[in-house]
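re: the backbone from monday

yeah here it is again, tokenized this time
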């Protein structure tokens, strides 16, 4: 049997995401040492209809996005102790990888592929007209995959962030959106 219908077949990884114990130190590291930036900060995010393991949750988090070439780097800061993948068993990963992200055109298909592979949906919700699920492919931290179906009608936020990193001179390393 081939790999058709496997999670990796849904799309290429476009993002590496981290939930650092010290968010500000992580921003300084990525911008100062690694030279990645600028990061764009989005504060107070709560996904519409957000569920953690099938139960509604009021979790709120901040995130900062930048690009290293074609790879998006995401830094996440949880704002509360509500159930989420940013606390508890999946919480802060120190400096390690928390999850990867892939973009899909059909989230229902992606969900079916994940279900067939035994990957559990641990978070789901919507951000505007974009829908997202996070699945645990069975191994705990480091095996989380975010699967995002981006809105087709909104501004190209990722494109704007990526363009800002081209030739970035190190100024304003953390910018609010």
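seq for it, each position gets an aa:
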């Amino acid at each position: 049997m081939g790999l058709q219908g496997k999670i990796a077949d849904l799309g290429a990884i476009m993002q590496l995401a981290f939930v650092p114990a010290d968010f500000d130190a992580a921003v300084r590291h990525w911008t100062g040492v690694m030279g990645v930036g600028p990061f764009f900060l989005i504060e107070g995010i709560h996904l519409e209809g957000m569920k953690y393991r099938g139960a509604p949750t009021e979790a709120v988090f901040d995130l900062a996005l930048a690009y290293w070439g074609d790879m998006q780097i995401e830094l996440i800061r949880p704002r509360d102790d509500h159930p989420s993948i940013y606390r508890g068993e999946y919480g802060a990963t120190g400096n390690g990888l928390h999850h990867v992200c892939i973009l899909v055109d059909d989230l229902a298909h992606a969900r079916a592929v994940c279900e067939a592979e035994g990957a559990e949906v641990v978070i789901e919700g919507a951000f505007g007209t974009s829908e997202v699920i996070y699945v645990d492919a069975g191994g705990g931290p480091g095996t989380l995959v975010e699967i995002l179906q981006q809105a087709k009608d909104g501004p190209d936020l990722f494109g704007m962030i990526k363009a800002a990193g081209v030739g970035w001179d190190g100024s304003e390393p953390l910018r609010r959106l």
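The mean pLDDT is 91. The first helix runs from residue 23 to 33.
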